[in-house]
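Worked example 2:
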Amino acid sequence: MLEQLERNLSQIVGYIYPNEIELHWGILIVVYPYITGLVAGAFILASLERVFNVKEIMPTYRLSLLTALSFLLIAPLPLLLHLGHPERFYEIMITPHLESAMAMFGFVYIWYLMMVLILEIWFEYRQDLVVLAREGSGLKKYFYYLLTLGSLDLSEKSLRFDKKAVGFITILGIPSAFILHGYVGFLFGSIKANPWWSSVLMPIVFLFSAIVSGIALMVLVYGISTLLRGKSINMPCMDKLATYLLNALIIDLSLETLDFIHRVYESVESIHIMGQMISQKLFISLIVVQLMLGTLLPIVLIVVTKTFSVPAELRRLVYFMAAIFVQIGIFSTRWNVVIGGQLFSKSLRGLTNYKMELLGVEGLLISIGLLVLPVIILIVMIKILPPWKEHIGAAS
């Protein structure tokens, strides 16, 4: 422990308070907003097809819902692992502290999970579940009967009601998705004592970066899953996704630039230490990864495909590359917000350091596991509830 303290002290610049040598929030708190952003972004993309009738992205509708649910199921895990007593997590629901913004997460999460995503997926899949239950055999038959909850009516009136219910829940889900991720930005933006976090634009910046990450995720999920099935990728769908991604990236970049200028303008006392932090501690993650690799490069790549006549296969490859760069950039954004906001001292005269562990509950391996787990859940969900159109046609 003494050796670790000596290593930490050797990384400190200037003057800091003793309780600032180690950061309170580590990689797990970086993973948490990253995952919730993917949930909100994937759901908002699904809403475009159902509410705004964007036909080009229809192949991604069901896949987006399943993706959002897979990541939402894992979203609380980083917070639970970070808690000293995760076994007490239920107390946030039975003894709510209504004046605590953090305590409200439990209610926002339950609302979004139970009243939006699961309900919409159930209504969307009810017809398929009934068909699969009737055509299945053995345990599979009973499993799908169980999922129908006894609602076996496939009359025209009943199916029309399902469609209306999906439309209503989707409309209800859009503000819910905004609240889910805007709430995370609200938590950081309302901490007035920290000039790196305190900004009225923080919830909006979080929200648009969530939309960016969700669209990029669906480019990858739809493209890879289609290729793995040996099917042809619907290029009008990919082109539309790329257009949405480009628009969202430009808006997100504009908002982040505005937010940064606003913070710099307000930070009369902290401007020196913030500049020092960016140039010394966050130069790679903020300037190189977030701005250049994760934002400007994807914008340039997509603009090139929109400006010049690019073959479909090359265009698809460019979209994949842009989506991967965006994911790296958005994760870096979360890193710069969470870790960056703790790197400078409240004395505004020094910088501390964050050294991530490889093992341990708050280590790198656990964080990677938390990011891989939703993908495994998504694969299982796709097996149970196939989202492909050809399957729907066959089942019907």
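The first strand starts at residue 13 and ends at 14. The longest helix spans residues 156-189.
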